[in-house]
Amino acid sequence: MSAKLVNLKINEIGREVRLFYNKTPFPDYDLQRFNTKEDLRLAAYPFAKILDQSIPEIASVIDVGTGTGQLSAFLSLRRKEVWGIDFSEGQLNKADSLKQKLGLKSWTIQKVDILDHEQVQSIGKQFDYLLCLGVLHHTGNPYDAFKNIIKLLKPNGYIALGLYNTFGRIPLNIRQFLARTVFKNNQAVKDMFIRMQIGDVEDKDRARGWWNDQYCHPHESTHTVGEALSWFKKNKIRFLECVPSLMFFDNSIMEVKGIWNTSEKTPSLFTRTVKQLQWISATNREGGYYILFGRRME
Ligand SMILES: C[S@@+](CC[C@H](N)C(=O)[O-])C[C@H]1O[C@@H](n2cnc3c(N)ncnc32)[C@H](O)[C@@H]1O
Fold it and tell me: What is residue 284's predicted lDDT score, i.e. its pLDDT?
């Protein structure tokens, strides 16, 4: 395919993904649930709390592809400078309503397409911590986006990169196929599929958001650990750890040990292969989602 056609395809993916999120915010929440900052604190998911404990209060943070911003809003409660960037106006409008309602002054929300080098550069500053969770696999060119956003990280700054894993996502890919074909009119089966990931489906906003994101998305790609580690290496990011762990017999509890404070050995091809094969069942609930943590070396 010629470079021009490739670019057209990438732009088309971006357009569809933006339209999708404009219509179907993620993570979806009912704004009426948040009347005080305390409500935001109480609604924080366990992983958000672990991030909050692991990032020093004086650190600046940027959440790339922040969506409706529940995580970055929560992190801004204890910090002077937290940014949330995204390219979907629908997502950012919802985030902005939350910001205005709760008066979150240290939270900056900005519209940025991370595939647009100039837009990323126009931010004009670098951060101590960069989070990019569940975003790159919805872009037409994940590695180009990665190279762009890395420039937002200070030397010695820390990164968390969340991606769908090629092996771990296999069961969900099968369920997506079944939901689109055999069970397309069967709400009970669809509810069961979503329950497999988020438990009870009492919170209808959340369930609807998850359903759209996992089963109706216009574009997703999957990435092996080896591929993501090669992005790290080429951009001088030192691998620190992975969740789920890439070490054998690692039963350490993240809530206790925190993140970014251990330096694991970069896993060999053998270890990566065995672990990723295990993830086919072990990360079924997360839809094959994994997070690599690293530190910029220069
Ligand atoms: C699955 S949501 C993840 C939201 C949030 N990070 C989380 O973990 O809950 C993916 C987000 O990436 C954003 N996104 C996708 N492509 C993007 C791009 N090229 N530039 C900026 N944001 C993008 C979407 O608008 C969407 O809000």
Answer: 87
